[in-house]
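help with this record:
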Amino acid sequence: MAEEKKKKKPETADLRPATAEDIISGLKNRDLFINVPKTLLKKEEWGLLTVLSIILAGIFPVYFINILLVSFFTEVGHFWTTHLTENERKNLIDFEKEFRAGYEMEKAGKWDEAIAVYEKLIPKYKSNPKISAIATQRIDFIKNEKSGKGN
């Protein structure tokens, strides 16, 4: 009974490093592994999308699947589209008009006047941080250009 309680140690594989003779004998037996017939399932990696495409191609014509996919991705894109209310749209148009005035001064080389216009836009449009960030970035750009760091 004491012998039954003793656990046998599992046989371990030979852990010695491979010698040149082992490598050469492995290369000689390589011909056995080269001629193994490969089936379609062993050669290809089958994913769910591949299987689904094959099934759909058997059921529907290819052009119909393409039309469905284009329609699907178009509608999914509508979820990411920004929709503005009328007040937000009016705000954006007003900002663009005022920003354009500053940009025209900038093109004429009136750097300080352009900065003054952009600085007025920041507090006016602070309710929309993305819009005010545009004016802030433009001010930083002009200051970098004037100091010669822009090139």
Observations:
- The two ends are 88 Å apart (CA to CA).
- The chain has nine helices and no strands.
- The CA atoms of residues 123 and 136 lie 11 Å apart.
- The first helix runs from residue 2 to 5.
